[in-house]
Amino acid sequence: MAEHERQGFFQRLKQGLKKTHQSVVRRIEELTLGKREIGPELIDRLEEILITADLGAATVHELIETIKWKVARKELEDAEHIQTLIKHELFTILQQHECPLIIPADQKPFVILTVGVNGTGKTTTIAKLAHLFKAQGRSVMLAAADTFRAAAIEQLEVWAHRVGCSLVKHKPGADPSAVAFDALKSARARHTEVLIIDTAGRLHTKLPLMEEVKKLNRILSREHPGAPHETLLVLDAT
Q1: Where are the alpha helices (DSSP H) in the chain?
Q2: Has residue 13 got a pLDDT over 60?
Q3: Among 16, 44, 179, 192, who pairs with 187 as Cys (CB 3.0-4.6 Å)?
Q4: Is this prediction's pTM over 0.70?
Q5: What is the pLDDT of residue 93?
Q6: Nearest Cα residue to 134 out of 227, 224, 17, 7
């Protein structure tokens, strides 16, 4: 995939997020513009806007309670200041839960194992991480250890090509642990900085699949002490 095509994808992603942001901001502005009083009706409408923006019920509840508390204490008396308050509170919430993914210079390769149920976006999350690490100047390798679906291997191959990183894959139906083993061996030989391993979607109730994850962990830690250094559980807010 050409460089301009790779940039085009991430530009479209950025534009999509920007549109969502602008839509929420516009609706809040329309709600509060020219208004002074912050009454129950305005707060209810604001809660509805935030819920439909997929902020999550718990986060929206926290924001609304903060607004009510500040209104009661007369710290917030102008509806037009609500947007500024929401920005500040969201920033504070994100800071509380911030957990940077740090890649130590002395751990090569730094192994990331991704897990989750089907359809939550594991593969696209891997692509985003790979793009981020590449942008930081790091060498990245992907491992297609979701061998149950041929489409999963093909999808990861497309992303590896777009992002510009190497890929280790086997035929569909192969042992996922064998893929991880070969990928780790290849990453060490090439002095690759980050190895990201894709795995099949699984529920915690599927014991054979959970045993497979345990096997992956055993092999990785045996061949590369400390690996996997991070296990990322990819979740869908829906």
Answers
A1: 3-32, 40-52, 57-72, 82-96, 122-135, 150-163, 176-189, 207-223
A2: no
A3: 192
A4: no
A5: 80
A6: 7
Side chain identity at residue 74, one-letter code: K
Higher pLDDT, 77 or 170: 170
- CB-count exposure of residue 237 (10 Å: 0-12, 13-18, 19+): exposed
Q: What is the largest CA-CA distance in the chain?
A: 66
Query: Residue 8: what pLDDT?
Result: 57
Nearest alpha-carbon partner for 102 in 110, 93, 113, 94: 110
Which tokens in the block code for residue 103? 């890649």
Yes or no: say if 201 and 119 are a contact pair by the CB < 8 Å rule: yes
What CATH fold (topology level) applies to the domain 3-96?
Four Helix Bundle (Hemerythrin (Met), subunit A) (1.20.120)
Residue 2: per-residue pLDDT: 45
CATH of 110-233, picked from 3.40.1190.20, 3.40.50.300, 3.40.190.10, 3.40.630.40, is: 3.40.50.300
The 10s digit of each residue's pLDDT in 63-99 is 999 999 998 888 888 888 888 898 888 888 877 777 7
Domain ranges of the chain: 3-96, 110-233
Pair 180, 216: CB distance under 8 Å:
yes
Six-digit token pair at 177?
């642990």
Average pLDDT over residues 37-65: 89
CA distance linking residue 57 with residue 59, whole number of Å = 6
Specify the pLDDT at position 16. 57
